[in-house]
Write a structure and sequence with these properties.
Helix 4 (about 85-140) packs antiparallel against helix 6 and helix 5 crosses helix 6 (about 165-205). The protein has helices at about 20-25, 50-60, 65-75, 85-140, 150-160, 165-205. The longest helix has about 55 residues, at about 85-140. The protein is mainly α. The protein has one domain.
């Protein structure tokens, strides 16, 4: 049965086993999203109007990968003032303003995905940490470990009993964060594009 956030975990029975045996013990698969990350109109303490705005950004938008591909492609627009009329620049500015807004929404959606990942990761890491504590406690009881175990001791055992799973979580966390960096840079580029087009339009009008 899957463990929900907030449940009190049942401590593992203390038995004599090796690190290799602990490594082969599979934890129960955790849920992918914490309950508090699931939105609903009831009990969310949000006004209905604001809830509709949230829904329009996170539920009703295009697929996030399709939006990213489109915004990156549209950024290749040729904005040279010498080859554009005032009307064309105005049209480009209007489009850039819209794309800039979409890029900001894309970043917001990406950050929510990071929150969902961290919710999953925290439950998974907690399960691995629990197994590591159990292993160290057992070693201490049979006399193979002396003294109080530190955070580094726990981390070390975690990497031994769930090496692949623990490594995968850390790599995926880094990938997600760096992806958000890329999306934030894309949004900043659209802000710059809008600013440049506005300056070009003003220059063409002699402002």
């Amino acid at each position: 049965m899957r463990r929900r956030l907030g449940d009190n975990p049942t401590p593992a029975p203390v038995t004599t086993r090796t690190i290799e045996e602990a490594r082969n013990t599979e934890p129960a698969p955790p849920p992918s999203v914490r309950p508090e990350l699931t939105r609903s109109d009831e009990g969310s303490h949000l006004s209905r109007g604001f809830e509709r705005i949230v829904k329009s950004i996170f539920d009703d938008g295009p697929e996030i990968d399709e939006q990213f591909a489109e915004l990156r492609e549209k950024l290749a627009f040729d904005e040279r003032a010498s080859s554009k009329s005032s009307g064309q620049i105005q049209d480009a500015l209007d489009r850039a303003s819209e794309y800039s807004q979409q890029a900001s929404e894309l970043v917001a959606r990406a950050k929510i995905n990071l929150e969902r990942f961290e919710a999953y990761a925290s439950i998974t890491e907690s399960a691995i940490r629990e197994r590591a504590h159990s292993e160290l406690t057992q070693q201490k009881e049979v006399g193979t470990y002396k003294g109080r175990f530190s955070k580094d001791d726990v981390e070390s055992v975690m990497t031994q009993i769930a090496a692949d799973e623990y490594s995968t979580l850390n790599v995926k966390r880094a990938e997600v964060k760096r992806t958000i960096d890329v999306l934030e840079a894309l949004a900043a580029n659209w802000v710059d594009r809008t600013r440049n087009l506005r300056a070009m339009l003003a220059m063409g009008r002699g402002v």
